């Protein structure tokens, strides 16, 4: 089984480089949806019920909702221009998520976006829910959105964000091709690559938290001060992380009918001024971030990742991680592997799961597959390459006669007492440390020592994987 979701991402210490050493990339999105929302005038079955001042609104089947329509109209008639003045006066770039049918109904606003140098990305054909669309219907709507967007703006969109998407949206847009980025994801603070059916697509994650939509939700902002405070705290944390060597991206989502209200835009103005008061801040459009990322971190095919290998290749590569016990790798392969298992820690977890789930007899066989430390197999040079290197790293290939005699005596007594050889992850350890552990552990009862030996086997496996894979 291959679990498709990537819950690992960039791991604990992501590293990214922005232009001119910026500590953070800050990006503002202005969603232009007015005129593209659900409305019977647009051929929809019911009125709009999402993201307005009417919290908890319900769709009206077969009817126009005059109040809802006028709220959306406010965004086009007044809110847009207020946001336009704010951003152009402060010379802050922006990306517009433009619903194609909404853009078609707002020629003056489109001209203003273009004159300001804003990027106009596609926000789909209509601002409606897509979760129940068939693949064929959604594919057709994506194609029509691209066509209409190109006709209205004079340029094909290079970015895409559906928002109210289906489980198929990302793959369908990837199939459509021609996009520098897609933003139907909230999975990270950095861009990442998505793969589908032999194609790859850059993802620039969006945000639902640093977003004025929370003015229109039950659990959200009720004043501009709350909005400013949340944006400021988000910026401060991400800026500090960037200063510490791990730059990120901060997206801020805006809607003309929400942030464009007088009582909210003042908070947004304060935040823009706050951000512009810092050095090493990259204010960018999403297309700028996408192009920088594609140049700096181009997609790389990596079919050598554990979760992508065939069973034969997987077992050939990792079958020896647990000494002479290929069945552990086979069981791990047959289990649930995902991108989270493509690191040393991740694959170790999968292999250990198979080992710990085995019977006591099977685990005993793994213990007995390990050689004695400084024993007869070592002297006969019949150890596996891994065991040879591990024992050599601890100096066990260069014992004095007295040390060898001591190891021989302890090995014999240990095996006689427990029924399996003494096992210890010796890589990087000194001979005196190993002997001290040997003499201490031989006093354990069998249950304690069996558990201890199993943990040492797991430790050896981790050290071997760390030599083979990134952490």
Description of the molecule:
- InterPro entries: Glyco_hydro/deAcase_b/a-brl, NODB_dom, OHCU_decarboxylase, OHCU_decarboxylase-1, OHCU_decarboxylase_sf, PuuE.
- The protein is of the alpha/beta class.
- The chain contains 17 helices and nine strands.
- Strands 1, 2, 3, 8 and 9 form a five-stranded parallel beta sheet that branches.
- Helix 10 crosses helix 11 and helix 12 packs across helix 17 (446-468).
- The protein is elongated and about 90 Å long.
- The two termini are 23 Å apart.
Distance between the termini: 23 Å
Radius of gyration: 30 Å
Number of DSSP helical runs:
17
Order of helices and strands: EHEHHEHEHEEEHEHEHHHHHHHHHH
- The total beta strand count reads 9
The helix-and-strand class reads alpha/beta
Range of helix content = 40-55%
User: Biggest β-sheet, characterized?
Assistant: 5 strands, parallel
Task: Quote the average pLDDT.
Answer: 91
What spatial form do the alpha-carbon principal axes imply?
A: elongated
Function: Is involved in generating a small heat-stable compound (Nod), an acylated oligomer of N-acetylglucosamine, that stimulates mitosis in various plant protoplasts.
Organism: Sinorhizobium garamanticum
Pfam family, one: Polysacc_deac_1
InterPro entries: Glyco_hydro/deAcase_b/a-brl (IPR011330), NODB_dom (IPR002509), OHCU_decarboxylase (IPR018020), OHCU_decarboxylase-1 (IPR017580), OHCU_decarboxylase_sf (IPR036778), PuuE (IPR017625)
Descriptors for this entry?
9% strand, OHCU_decarboxylase_sf, two-stranded parallel sheet, single chain, 9 strands, alpha/beta, 46% helix
């Amino acid at each position: 089984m291959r679990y498709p979701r990537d819950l690992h991402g960039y791991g604990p210490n992501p590293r990214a480089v922005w232009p001119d050493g910026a500590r953070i990339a800050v990006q503002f999105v202005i969603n232009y949806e007015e005129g593209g929302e659900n409305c019977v005038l647009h051929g929809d079955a019911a009125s709009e019920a999402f993201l307005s001042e009417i919290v908890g609104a319900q769709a009206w089947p077969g009817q126009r909702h005059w109040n809802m329509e006028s709220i959306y109209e406010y965004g086009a008639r007044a809110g847009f221009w207020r946001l336009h003045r704010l951003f152009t006066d402060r010379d802050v770039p922006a990306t517009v998520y433009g619903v194609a049918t909404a853009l078609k109904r707002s020629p003056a606003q489109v001209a203003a976006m273009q004159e300001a140098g804003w990027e106009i990305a596609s926000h789909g054909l209509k601002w409606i829910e897509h979760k129940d669309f068939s693949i064929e219907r959604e594919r057709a709507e994506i194609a029509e959105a691209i066509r209409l967007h190109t006709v209205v703006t004079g340029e094909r969109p290079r970015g895409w964000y559906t928002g109210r998407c289906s489980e198929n949206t990302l793959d369908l847009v990837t199939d459509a091709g021609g996009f520098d980025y897609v933003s139907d994801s909230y999975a990270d603070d950095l861009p990442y690559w998505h793969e589908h059916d032999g194609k790859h697509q850059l993802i620039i994650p969006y945000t639902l938290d640093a977003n004025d939509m929370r003015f229109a939700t039950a659990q959200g902002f009720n004043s501009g001060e709350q909005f400013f405070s949340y944006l400021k705290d988000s910026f401060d944390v991400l800026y500090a992380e960037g200063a510490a060597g791990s730059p990120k991206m901060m997206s801020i989502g805006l809607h003309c009918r929400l942030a464009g209200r007088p009582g909210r835009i003042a908070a947004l103005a304060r935040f823009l001024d706050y951000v512009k008061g810092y050095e090493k801040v990259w204010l960018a459009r999403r297309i700028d971030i996408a192009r920088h990322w594609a140049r700096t971190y181009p997609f790389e095919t990596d079919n050598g990742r554990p979760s992508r290998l065939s069973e034969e290749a997987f077992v050939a590569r990792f079958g020896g991680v647990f000494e002479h016990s290929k069945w552990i790798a086979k069981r791990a392969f047959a289990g649930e592997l995902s991108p989270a298992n493509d690191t040393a820690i991740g694959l170790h977890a999968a292999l250990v799961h198979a080992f710990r789930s085995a019977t006591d007899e099977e685990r005993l066989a793994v213990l007995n597959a390990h050689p004695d430390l400084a024993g007869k197999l070592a002297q006969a040079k019949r150890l596996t390459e891994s065991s040879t290197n591990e024992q050599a790293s601890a100096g066990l290939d260069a014992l004095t006669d007295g040390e060898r005699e001591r190891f021989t005596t302890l090995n014999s007594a240990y095996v006689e007492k427990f029924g399996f050889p003494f096992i210890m992850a010796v890589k990087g350890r000194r001979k005196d440390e190993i002997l001290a552990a040997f003499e201490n552990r031989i006093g354990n009862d069998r249950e304690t020592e069996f558990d201890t030996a199993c943990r040492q086997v797991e430790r050896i496996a981790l050290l071997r994987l760390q030599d083979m894979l990134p952490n």
